[in-house]
Amino acid sequence: MTAVVVAGAGSIGSLLAAHLAQVADVTVLTRREEHAAALREQGLRVSGRGDFTARLGATADAGRLPPDVELVILACKSTDLEPLAARLEGTLADATVMTIQNGLGAEEIVRGYGERPLVSAVTFMSGVRHSDAHVEYELDTETWLGPFAATTSFEHAQEIEALLVESGLRARAFPDLRPAQWSKLIFNATVNTVAALTDLPHVGAFARVAEPTDLGLLVRDLMDEGKAVAAASGVELHEDPWEMNVHAVQRGETEAAAGAYAHVPSMLEDVRSHRATEVDFITGALVREAARASVPAPLHAAMYRLVKAREAAY
Amino acid sequence: MTAVVVAGAGSIGSLLAAHLAQVADVTVLTRREEHAAALREQGLRVSGRGDFTARLGATADAGRLPPDVELVILACKSTDLEPLAARLEGTLADATVMTIQNGLGAEEIVRGYGERPLVSAVTFMSGVRHSDAHVEYELDTETWLGPFAATTSFEHAQEIEALLVESGLRARAFPDLRPAQWSKLIFNATVNTVAALTDLPHVGAFARVAEPTDLGLLVRDLMDEGKAVAAASGVELHEDPWEMNVHAVQRGETEAAAGAYAHVPSMLEDVRSHRATEVDFITGALVREAARASVPAPLHAAMYRLVKAREAAY
What we know:
The structure is a homodimer. By secondary structure, chain A is an alpha/beta fold. Chain A is built from 11 helices and 12 strands. In chain A, helix 6 (178-198) runs parallel beside helix 9 (266-272) and helix 6 crosses helix 11 (298-312). The A-B interface holds A 194, 197-200, 205, 212-215, 217-218, 221, 284, 287, 298-299, 301-302, 304-306, 308-310, 312-313 and B 194, 197-200, 205, 212-215, 217-218, 221, 284, 287, 298-299, 301-302, 304-306, 308-310, 312-313.
C-alpha cells in the first residue's frame, strides 16, 4: 500500500486521513502528543456523510515518520504552514508534497524549506471536528489538485486523484490548477470576510439581490472586483465564483430545510473563537495581486482592513 | 423659568435634562412609568465630568405634560422617533421642537405629525447611562443647532444656545446647520459602521495610515467618499470629518493614558447588545443622498449592507 503522511489533523486533515486510511498506509503528524495518542488508541471516527472508524498511525514527532513515504499532505491552516514546513525540512526525501491551504502562496512557503515535487490542491469539502478522534463529514464536495509549476507531472497529480477517489472522497486533477485556485480564492476572499464581519453563516442572504440593502449586491461586487484582478493577472477562471456562491447557498438551504445546520465559513469560526484568521493568505493575497497587476480593488482592501482590525479587537 | 420637555432619557436625553434643570423647569417624558417614578423620587444624578443630582418632573404620559412648554427636545434614537412624534401629535401647541438624532431626516419625520417651529441639532457630547436615575458625563463636546428650513429664526436658535450654555453644556447656534450636520453625518457614517463591524471602540487605529493594512486608510477613504457626496449635494462642510476623527482619537488616547476608557460609538453598543442600529438614518441617508446626486458611494454602500446583515444575524 502507498505510504501517506497527513500533517495536521484539523477538520480537513482528519477527513483526508480517515478516508485515505481505507486504501493507504496513513500516518498522521500532529502538533500535540496526546492528539497522536488518541488517534493511535481510538482510531479516527467519521460521522455525518460517512460512518466508520479508521485505523491509522499517528505521532507528534516528525523524526519518527516512516522512511518510505510517497505522499505528504500538508493539511494545516495557512497561518501554521511555515512552522510545519520547517519541522519537515530534510525529512521524507522521496515524498511528493501536496499543499491544500486556503488562499495563495502555500507552495512558495514549502519551497523555502527544500526543493520537492509539489502538488497544489484546493478543497471544497468541509467537516466539523468534534474531538481529537472524531470528525463529522459535512460537505462532500470536490478537492481539486494539479502539479505546481514544473516540479512534477499532471500524471502524478492524476495518480493522487485516483487514490483520493478510491478512498471515498471526490477529487479532480487539472493540468494547471491556477484557474480553479483563483475561482476558489475569489469565492473565499468574499464569503469568508463577509461571514466574519457580519456573524452570518453562508446562508441565502449571500445571494439575495432584490433590495438596495441586500447583502448579495456586496457579494457580487466583491466577486466582480476579484474577477477583474484574475483577468488582469492573466488567469481565466475555471468557475464563476458568483455561480459557486449561488449553488452553495441553494444547496445549503435545501439541507437546512432537511434539518442540517448552516455552513460556518472558517474565518467566521476563527473570529468567534478569537483565533488568528487566514485573511493575509486569502484577501491579502488578492489585494497584493491587484496591486501587482495595477487593478483597483477598493472593496477587498476594505474587507481586508476590517478583518485585520477585528482581529486586533480580540 | 422657561418650561422645557426632554422626551427620551437615554444618555443624551439624561445629560440634557439634568443640566437644563439647573436653569429651566424641566419635565422628562419617558417610555416606562417606572423610569419616570425613579426620576421623580431620586432625581437625576450626573457623575463623570459633572457631579450633581438634578430635581425635575417626569412622566410616561404625554397627556400630563405641562401646558406652557416653550421647548421640546426629542432626545430619542432615530429608530424611535416616529412613535415619539406620534405620541406628541396635537400636544404642546406653542412649543418649538428640537431634534437631535444622528443622521438625516429627523425633521421630516416630526413634520409628518404637524407643523411646528423646528430647530435641528447634532451633538458630540456623550455619556454612559448607569441606571434610570444616573448618567455619567463622558465627552463634554459641543451641541450644534440651527433653525430648520424657515420654520423658525436664527435668533430663536441662539436663545436655545444661550439656555444650554447657561445650564453648563457647550453649545453653538448656526444660521444654517447643514454644513455641521453633514460633517457629523460623514464622521458618524464612518466611525460608527467601522466600530460596529470590527468591535473596536474609537481608538488610535482609526487614524493610523502607515501600513497598507491600516484601518485609517479605510476610514479616510470612507470620509473622502462622503465628502464627494456632500460636494455633489451642494453642501460646504463646516469641519473636515477626517480632522474630526484625528482630533477625537488623539483626545481619546490622552484620556486613555489617564485611565479613562475608550469611547464606544453607539452603533457598536447596539451591535453588542443585539439592538437595532441607526444605520438606516446615518449610512443609509448618505447612500440615498449619493444616489440622488448621482455620485458613486461603493464603500458606504458596502458598510451599509454589512451592518444590515450583522443585524439580521442577531
